[in-house]
Amino acid sequence: MVLELYLDLYSQPCRSVYIFAKKNNIPFEFKQLSLSEGQHYSEEFGKINPLRKVPAMKDGDYQLAESVAILLYICRKFKTPDHWYPSDLQKQAKVDEYLSWQHAAIRAPASQIFWFKLMMPIITGSNTPQAKMDSALEELNTSLQLFEENFLQDKNFIVGQEISLADIVAIVELMQPLGSGLDIFEGRPKLTAWKERVKGSIGKELFDEVHELILNARDLPKKMQQSAMLPHLKASLQKMLN
Predict the structure, then answer these.
(1) Which terminal CB of the chain, N or C, has fewer other CB atoms within 10 Å?
(2) Is 221 a residue whose pLDDT tops 70?
(3) For residues 192 and 128, is the Cβ–Cβ distance under 8 A?
């Protein structure tokens, strides 16, 4: 029985799970969900993941949510090559360190930029207040500097000379602002060189496939204008502004 992976590739964590499973030739059934259409609130999906979030995984009768937990489960179950999640205690802890840090430091501001820059005008009819946009950009720029200086340093990848789970989780988050038209790699040669190494390790075809939707995300708001999720999205955006 193959894994069932419930994913929407507009979602950064979903892309990390998809990349890892495909790159390691792990057999899985791609259960595509549309967050913009609210399919994660369906009764059927609620039985898979009561948290109503993607990614979600089903392995026979066993169900699991949260992208990092899913990545580690797949890594251990299928005994993927050691560089993904090293058996060396200190290298493994460095992967854990990045995975623990990135949620608030990278994911939060990068996601905000995407929503503030692209989605806000369509969903609310108003532009994001400049002070909020500036604050999100400043937070992201600070985190990118920390990423380069503290995590990447002069290494090829976050944990040494080979790609790891940390790099996959990092790249999908840093690609998200590109969907809103903001190229965060511009003017950052170290970050750009790292991105190209990650892309090369993943494989250009897979990398381009998994990011095709987000890089064409300017088409997404048109679909959302008729979505039943609009009231929920407006409420979520309002929370971001508070």
Answers:
(1) C
(2) no
(3) no
